[in-house]
Amino acid sequence: MSRIVRSTIDTEVKRKQIINDINEEYNYYLEEDMNNHTQNKKRIYRNILLVVLSKSGKTTLGHIIADPRYIPKELTLSSISARDIQYIWNIFAEPSLVSLNIVEIPDCMINENSNLSDINRECMKLEISEFHLVCFCTSLITGIDGYAIKLFTRFIQHFSEEKIDDNLCFIITQCEMKNDEQRQCLRDEFLSDTECAKLTKNKTDRIYFSGALNPDDYKRANDTLYYQFKNIYNYRKNLLLFIESDG
Residue 7: is its pLDDT beyond 90? Predict the structure, then answer.
């Protein structure tokens, strides 16, 4: 057997082992967190709106809220994005007691030439009249986008700042490899940015992080996947606690 074939087999075996380990770790975390939840709490229902441009990580975030073991597709140079509202319906996001409807607004519905009332109409078709959380996503890879902030500000003004303000949060995506010190630096950078400051105002406690298992590390069966998953699970847990608490 050639060295290349042997290496491929070894990688496949290791990849399966890593995924099995992550599944076991996920089940362990779930059991531990479920035991910490008050047993007599009733399930609550929340509608989540993900806004901003493509490449911000908002689509991956929706999948991660549903399942933190999700592995996204590899990054591409394509600028093609969805033309219609995307949604993930009726997710029971364990270990929380929250059932979620996640709605993702495509670029074409928030750009400068769009009629934002179309969002109202499309949401009414989905029988959604209220959003309990509105998420502004910023990717660590693409960085803070002044144009995206401009569009999001327009979105807020359309739906009324008073109506959205209490339900607004900011999520920095693609942070699966970041440690505490790095996250604090990113938080400080986000808060000190002139454009972001127009949105954050006094919401310093509304900045969250997210990430996903890196598809390249998955292909290579890299041990860093263990560290990534621990971060991803905790990011998701913190966000779910915020959602469950009604902000």
Answer: no
The torsion angles phi and psi of 103, rounded to 5 degrees, stand at: -115, 130
In a domain, 226, yes or no: no
Residue 181's CATH number: 3.40.50.300
Specify if 235 maps to a domain. no
Cβ atoms of 183 and 211 closer than 8 Å: no
Residue 65 shares a structural domain with residue 139: yes
Residues 98 and 156 in one domain: yes
3-state secondary structure the chain: CCHHHHHHHHHHHHHHHHHHHHHHHHHHHHHHHHHHCCCCCCCEEEEEEEECCCCCCHHHHHHHHHCCCCCCCCCCCCCCCCCCCEEEEEEECCCCCEEEEEEECCHHHCCCCCCCHHHHHHHHHCCCCCCCEEEEEEECCCCCCHHHHHHHHHHHHHHCHHHHHCCEEEEEECCCCCCHHHHHHHHHHHHHCHHHHHHHCCCHHHEEECCCCCHHHHHHCCCHHHHHHHHHHHHHHHHHHHHHCCC
Residue 33 is part of which domain span?
A: 1-38
Do residue 105 and residue 2 come from a single domain?
A: no
Q: How many domains does the chain contain in total?
A: 2
Domain boundary among 151, 179, 195: 195
Provide the mean pLDDT of the chain: 86
pTM score, two decimals?
A: 0.89
Q: What is the pLDDT of residues 188-205, one digit of tens each?
A: 999 998 888 878 876 788
> Model confidence at 6, in pLDDT bands (50, 70, 90)?
very low
